[in-house]
Amino acid sequence: MWEYMRNRDVFVNGNRDGVEMVLSKNYAYLMESTSLEFEVSQNCNLTQIGGVLGSKGYGIALQKKSEWTDRISRQILLYQKRGVIEMKKTKWWRSKGATCSGTGSAVKQQRFSLSLHNVAGLFIILGAGLLFGFGTVIIELFIRCRQLAKKENLSFWTELISELRFALNLNKVEDHHSRKKSMKQNGAMAPDPLQHSTQLLHNGNSSVMRRKN
């Protein structure tokens, strides 16, 4: 950029000439950010491109060990805290006949707003990722069901339904593998622990009665 500027007659004598060049020609003007913000607020046909290129602060020169150093510093901080500086900026920057309503603001808003076409790639990538993940889960589920069906001598669809019920948390109490084992035994019911204990107790009583006889 500096080579282009140095080899061509693009320099101006001041900010006013630079603003006129921007308004009348295909010209971009590098300007101090505060002055640029003021010019943009006063003329809706101007706009700022990007942020600041560099940051330099303003200072008030005083003598060393001056009694005014702390006073001025405290007063500036107090103005910042109370919003006085922002109020003054609003008064002189935005309220001096600058409304920027109408065609100028509409053009700038249209120029810098993002449309659906600009962000369509994000949704395409997100949708492709979701489809790929869903397909991977389906393939893994089918492979697992086929392996378990061969191992437990069950049909593929029975195994698939059992896995889906377990994945959807429909089997809250019983283990789905124990349920499949009972299904493999053609509906044979597992013995009730309480009934089994009662039967053992009854057998024990019977044996004692036989010894008495």
Automatic annotation (TrEMBL):
Biased composition, class Polar residues, residue ranges: 195-213
Entry keyword annotation includes Transmembrane helix: yes
GO molecular function: ligand-gated monoatomic ion channel activity
GO terms under cellular component: membrane
Keywords, sorted A to Z: Glycoprotein, Ion channel, Ion transport, Ligand-gated ion channel, Membrane, Receptor, Transmembrane, Transmembrane helix, Transport
Compartment annotation: Membrane
Residue span of region Disordered: 177-213
SUPFAM superfamilies per the UniProt record, alphabetical: Periplasmic binding protein-like II (SSF53850)
Keyword Transport appears in the UniProt entry: yes
SMART domains: PBPe
Superkingdom of origin organism: Eukaryota
Regions that span the bilayer: 119-143
Domain Ionotropic glutamate receptor C-terminal: 1-95
Predominant location category: membrane
Protein's membrane topology: Multi-pass membrane protein
Annotated PANTHER family: IONOTROPIC GLUTAMATE RECEPTOR
Homology family: Belongs to the glutamate-gated ion channel (TC 1.A.10.1) family.
Protein name stated in the entry: Ionotropic glutamate receptor C-terminal domain-containing protein
